[in-house]
Write a structure and sequence with these properties.
single chain, 163 residues, Ribosomal Protein L30, Chain: A, alpha+beta
Length: 163
């Protein structure tokens, strides 16, 4: 009789482990191949004359219809440059880039790494009005809540005329 109870317990345990494994596999498969942020929105410019930049002093190619490219070159263009410091964390910078500029997490990490390595990175290019608007949004984010040492304020940001 003890053997029957032992075998029944082992069989139940095997079924439970199998069901758990199936649930984990289905859950992992449903997450897709993104960079870990479900339902991540596609980046969208605020206006036709503004677009995210791809790197340090290199403006991004216009996305979308060719008409957007002519609108982007209609007036003078400016770069919004984020500056490195020792108080703001990668998490803060990545979240800032995601929330203010609509960049995916992977792109935000790449830019945060560039800022850390080179001391700065162009994160946005557009009209002076669009760049000033984004600058105000960056400054409004305030200090880094994840910083080990108290950050005094928002991340450093400057505006430069595009070449």
């Amino acid at each position: 009789m003890a053997w029957v109870v032992l075998l029944a317990t082992l069989a139940a345990l095997l079924v439970a482990v199998t069901v758990l494994a199936i649930v984990v596999v289905v859950w992992l498969a449903s997450r897709g191949e993104g960079d870990g942020w479900p339902d991540e929105p596609e980046p969208r410019p605020d206006e036709p004359a503004a677009r995210p930049a791809v790197g340090n002093d290199v403006p991004a190619a216009a996305e979308g219809p060719e008409g957007d490219d002519s609108a982007a070159s209609a007036g003078p263009q400016y770069h919004l440059v984020l500056l490195n410091d020792d108080t703001h964390t990668y998490q803060y910078v990545i979240e800032l880039l995601r929330n203010v500029f609509g960049l995916p997490v992977a792109r935000g990490f790449a830019l945060a790494s560039e800022i850390d390595k080179h001391g700065r990175a162009v994160v946005f290019t557009g009209s002076l009005e669009a760049v000033n608007n984004k600058r105000a949004q960056v400054l409004a984010r305030g200090p880094d809540p994840w910083a080990r040492s108290k950050s005094e304020g928002p991340l450093g940001v400057v505006i430069e005329k595009a070449r």
